Amino acid sequence: MKRALLTVMLLGAYAAAGAQEMPSAREASAPLTLRKCLEIGLEQNYDVRIVRNEEQISDNDATPGNAGMLPTIGLSAGYTGTLDNDRTTTPREGDAVSESNVYDQTASVGLAVNWTLFDGFRIRTNYKRLKEMQQMGALKTRITIEDFMASLTAEYYNYIQQTLRLQNFRYAVGLSRERLRITEARVQVGNFSRLDLLQARVDFNADSSKYMSQHELVTASRIRINELLASENLDEKLCIRDTLIRVNSTLEWSVLLEKTLSANASLLMAEHDNTLAELDLKTVQARNYPYVNLTTGYGYGYNRYGTGANRSRGTLGLNAGVQVGFTIFDGNRRREQRNARIGIDNARLTRQQLEQSLRADLSNFWQAYRNNLEVILLEEENLIAAKENYEIAMERYLLGDLPGIEMREAQKSLLDAEERILTAQYNTKLCEISLQQISGNIMVYLE
């Protein structure tokens, strides 16, 4: 009774697992490819959308007006009223005249223009800085997109790996079930002992446990892909068209190195950092030059007097002026110039350090990539041998010439060979993705 109950529970678990893997009608009619996933993610992923908005901000900031090249124009109007008590004494006679509650009024309206014509090339430097920031914003967007594409591509093939591993575990359960059936039949006719039956059942339960646990990894990978795609339903089922991990074995070291030095986004960003450091020095040096400011305006003024010979006065006209100045000493100029030159040197050293780091990463991934390609070839041979070994073992086991333990070893050797080749393929794919990303060629997965 216990055996029957356990068998029913396991079969129920397999049926539920199989139901979880069945795609919906929509998914079955539109299987996802890697390119389709990347296209959806580039439109919906939150990190990509945020960095694109930030790039738009840097585009909006890169204007002559923000750099200070354009004049400022202001319109103002005002009214002032004063209430006084006046006492006036004549200089000769000494007579004093007093007036109380004298109410004077002043009203004005005018248009003023202020324009910095020259400030030691600081305005031009600011504009160049804004343009550099604009280009760096585009590079930041590119880096985020490349990181996203690498992450999604790696997770896409991880989902395939976990799904294939699930199929291998399902196959292992099938093998163990068949072995258990044969053992039960042999025990009934007296060819096998109860010990063989117990061992076969233990192996079957162990394989069943691995199979059910593998579902968690498949689910976790699926949820991660939905998260990268910014799907509303993170538990939405996926229907992936690819069923194998196809490795690109045609990468060339010289091409990868050349592209890395010329197209790597982080390296290009470091070059812009060097340019910004040079612009910082020019900004400080701008204080060595004089500045020229132009002011002009047009306005109307009206004064109404509460006492005196004139009751009111109105003015309407244009005014203009030029201001020229020069900062002789401010106490910080030389220190700031020295620090700016040190900043240029640090930016140059940082760029060289980054290039060296990229070369090291490229070399490490290249070595791992080549080694894993060799491992794949070796494991393919091992898999052929393991399959043949298992077939021979099964024939001997059916004839009763092979103990259950040795049959289990043959089965385990086959499953281990399948696991090793799957792991080697995935590791090679990860190295391939990293090499493409470092060399700035990650967009190849959109082709």
TrEMBL record:
Any one cellular-component term (Gene Ontology): cell outer membrane
Locations listed in the record: Cell outer membrane
The Swiss-Prot or TrEMBL record annotates one GO molecular function as: porin activity
Which keywords annotate this record?
A: Cell outer membrane, Membrane, Signal, Transmembrane, Transmembrane beta strand, Transport
Signal peptide residues on this chain, from the entry's feature table: 1-19
Instruction: Please name the InterPro entries in this protein's record.
Output: OMP_efflux, TolC-like
Q: Which Gene3D superfamilies match?
A: Outer membrane efflux proteins (OEP)
- What family is this? Belongs to the outer membrane factor (OMF) (TC 1.B.17) family.
- Show the PANTHER family listed in the entry: OUTER MEMBRANE PROTEIN TOLC
Question: Would you tell me the protein name for this molecule?
Answer: Outer membrane protein TolC
